[in-house]
Amino acid sequence: MKGLLAIGEGIFFFYVLICLLVLNMIHFGNILFVDMPYEEPMTVTSSSPTAFLFLFGLGGVCFLYIRYFMGRSGYRRLKIVLWGSLFAFNTFGSGFSLLMSYGLMLNHREVIYLILATVMSLVLTIQAIMKYYEWK
Fold this sequence. Notes:
Number of helices: 4
Radius of gyration: 17 Å
Helix content: over 70%
Shape: elongated
């Protein structure tokens, strides 16, 4: 049962990693490639409520997952370092994209989505740091 749980945690980690990489690649692509007047920026999703529900759902699940880690102390520390690093890199990436895309004419919902992704990643990074020092 513990092996199955470890496999599930690994799959969940890589799912979140892929989602965050795609989000950052879309925004970095908009910064790099939208330089001509006839080019249009890529959007994350076509539906604003779907994007916000996905963001809040994934953020809520990650928040609860980090809050209630299970396992031995070494395994928990490894997980918290991995999750904290993932969300720290996403915070820096999303924040960089937000600052660099300030001059671009982005859709307002994309800017709000990017701000929420940055804030949620920052909150999850802070929570991971607090958990790390709680278990130290």
